[in-house]
Amino acid sequence: MWAWALLPIILAIGGAAGIWGVCAVAVINGTVNLTNGVPYISDCGTYNPQSCVFSQHLNICAFLGIWVAVLRFQQIRDFGLNSKVNTASLVLGFISALGISVTGNFQKTVLLRAHHFGAFLAFIGGVTFFWLHVWLTYKAKPCQDHHRVGPVRIVLCSICTALIPVAIVQNIKDHRSSAAICEWVIAMVFFVLFGLFGVELRHIDCVRLTVQAAPRTQPYCSPASHFVHPRAPAGAEGRALPQAVAQTDTHSE
Asked: Is the pLDDT of residue 5 over 70?
């Protein structure tokens, strides 16, 4: 079903277009002067009115990024790969999304340390997240996709990994234009990497929330122990309590 494949593509295209749009507004109203060099992405979204659009845009990107990470995580689990790498990728996806949101909501002219902390989570957490998915590309099903997206992910992740320390060094040396160019390239590559998830997510037929019966073996138990493993035998003693389990239906082509 191609509908779910559109989600990461919308994130990639919409996210990149939104950032370039904020930059265009900043140039038009004069808050950014291109004759002084290439601005940082955050410079474009620092001042009103584009700061409001910038923060909201990054919040939406963070939400869509979490959605994509959760869908891919559950899809890999449904294919039978219960790997710690998959769990770690989900955690890093949340961390990177948090960093994106913090970066957009704490402008550098207001709280510089919080802004830099958010950027650190977004870039370092993000590139680690994508490297883990390079490994998962070759280990998880649909296995036929690794011939197409595997090499592309490796190249793009290598570019980001190389540019992040370059951007940091250039920023320390106060070479703002060079550091800003690296930042723009990393951000655009991130969007492309998110878009590549569409190749795997196209195998999802639907996403459903199912309720399964879970037996309670004691007359009373604390709220923390109400639910047991969803694969408990149907004939187990005790009154059954509902348990919600998220699943994705997938198919291979």
From this structure: yes
Distance CA 137, CA 75 (A): 12
Neighbours of 106 (CB within 10 A): 20
Q: What is the spatial distance between Cα 193 and Cα 8, in angstroms, rounded to a whole number?
A: 9
User: Which residues of the chain form beta strands (DSSP E)?
Assistant: 204-215, 240-250
Structural contact between residues 210 and 247, judged by C-beta atoms closer than 8 angstroms? yes
Q: Is the separation of the CB atoms in 74 and 66 below 8 Å?
A: no
Residue with tokens 């950032």: 19
Rounded distance, CA 38 to CA 182, Å? 10
CA 235, chain centre distance (Å): 41
Element housing 8 (H / E): helix 6-28
What is the token pair recorded at 180? 């800003």
Q: Which residues are registered as beta bridge partners of 240? A: 215
Rg (CA), the chain: 22
Residue type, 245: V
pLDDT tens profile 50-97 = 888 999 999 999 999 999 999 999 888 888 778 899 999 999 999 999
Which string of b and e fits 202-220 if b means at least 16 CB within 10 Å? bbbeeeeeeebebbbeeee
| CB 197 within 8 Å of CB 8 | yes
Number of C-beta neighbours around residue 98 at 10 A: 16
The CA distance from 207 to 247, in Å, is 6
| pLDDT in the model for residue 155 | 95
Name the residue among 247, 165, 148 with its Cα closest to residue 206.
247
Handedness of CA 152, 155, 158, 160 (dihedral sign): negative
